[in-house]
Amino acid sequence: MSDLPPLPEGYEFSADPARVDADRVHHWLSTDAYWALGRTRAKHDAAMAGSLNFGVYDAVTGVQAAYARAITDRATFGWLCDVYVDPEVRGKGIGAAMVARVREELRAFGLRRILLATHDAHGVYARLGFEPLARPDHWMALQLG
Description:
This protein is about 25% helix and about 20% strand. By secondary structure, it is α+β, with helices and mostly antiparallel strands. It starts with 10 loop residues before the first strand and ends in a 19-residue tail after the last helix.
């Protein structure tokens, strides 16, 4: 799947980690994302340092409007996480457009698969080619904390 949903006019995607507004992203995730509520700034910074970081930005002001993070070995596997769109700009297609671009950034490494977990956005991800695990009984998890 290589068709990219368009970003709304006035927004731009970037894979440049220097553009990420870490303060803004930490605030979003630690106060509004069910999977990261209460995440400390130190934990957030460590997670970002060990990941590829992506954003969507207002093309005029440069203000970050969305964020996604990917953990990958850059050869066989990727994990897409911390996908978040500022509530003030939700509903414009920014999230889907960002995830499609992240997918293409990761595809360039020749990965075999990209996984993600979601509580409530299955439809968004399905439109971008993600599907339920064919054999979930083959997967296991070790909870460390």
